[in-house]
Amino acid sequence: MKPLRLTSLGLTLVALFTTSTAFANSWYEIELIAFSRSADKSLKEQFDAPTQELKTSNAMDLMRPLVQPALADLIKAIPACTANSVTSSTASPAVSATVQQQIQQLLSEHQQNKQAVTAEPDALDVQSDTAAVAASLYQLNIQNCQMEQWDADGQLISRPLTTEELALQLPAPAQIPATFTGDGQAKEGAYLVGSDGLQLKNLAYQLQREAGKQLLLHTAWRQPLVSGRNSRSRWYAGIYQNETETQTEQNIDLMQQVQQQLAAVQQGQSGLQLWYSPWQFDSLVQLRLGRFIQFDGTFYLRQSDDAAQPAQIAIKQSARLTLGQIHYLDHPRLGVIIQVKRFTPPESTGTATL
């Protein structure tokens, strides 16, 4: 019986080793390039407009922490807060002025908005008391990582950050750079590659130089894929159409959209539904690992150079991807280039994940 037990133990160890190796080999590196094309006025095809918001509730978003970081992420950039204690009361943490300004601006705007909602002005005096608003603004004491607040009596009080304040996110930038990368540091879960990890730089450079093409996004990320399960991720780029744009521009876009949708309704093609993504380019990418890697992408592209088309176009593309090959998904207004290849994570990352 002893040999049998030893054999069983040996098989167990082999199975464990095989499982660990299989898990390590389930990592993949995905590189994505998206670019737009100028309108071809001779084209008679009518494109579809988005009829609903992208379903991103359960989609991975590796861009958000860099595009719209939460206050907690900015606090982590402060050495004194990260270390939990300051060795010297006279120490001056090396915090960039940009980080300090971002934190204080965010908290100031939050406090002003909070007061605007909760304030109940007297009916006999509807003038806002700007002095009271200014006196109660928050500021971050970089030295001891406490929030300092002037109360109504003019006393400076310190307190920890609340969960609500830590959850606040910075406003979206006016535009995202076309080449979007992270620090490239290996993590247990999915992460963005660094700028030196992009393999299709020459291809992206050629696209930038071609007339009639605009590079929207060039990025790459690494993640594990599990056979039979879908992996969804959201990627966006270009100009952010925020709420401060002029009403005239909004009316033009809406009227253009209404005209297109009404024409579609008359032809029995769709219902009258209006929806806009705030980004110039917005997408939901789905990968499924099986005998092939199944790619399904939904792309929303905002355009303004063809009045005969919707202000925002909805494009869906599907393909079976072969590992290591560069795949090109073509559309009259949008081009997508994607490459998926195996990636072997560092030993420490694979071990920690198990």
UniProtKB/TrEMBL annotation:
- What's one Pfam family the UniProt record gives for this protein? CsiV
* Source organism, top-level taxon: Bacteria
Lineage, opening ranks? Bacteria, Pseudomonadati, Pseudomonadota, Gammaproteobacteria, Chromatiales
Q: Please report the name of this protein according to its UniProt entry.
A: DUF2066 domain-containing protein
Keyword entries, A-Z: Signal
The positions making up the signal sequence are 1-24
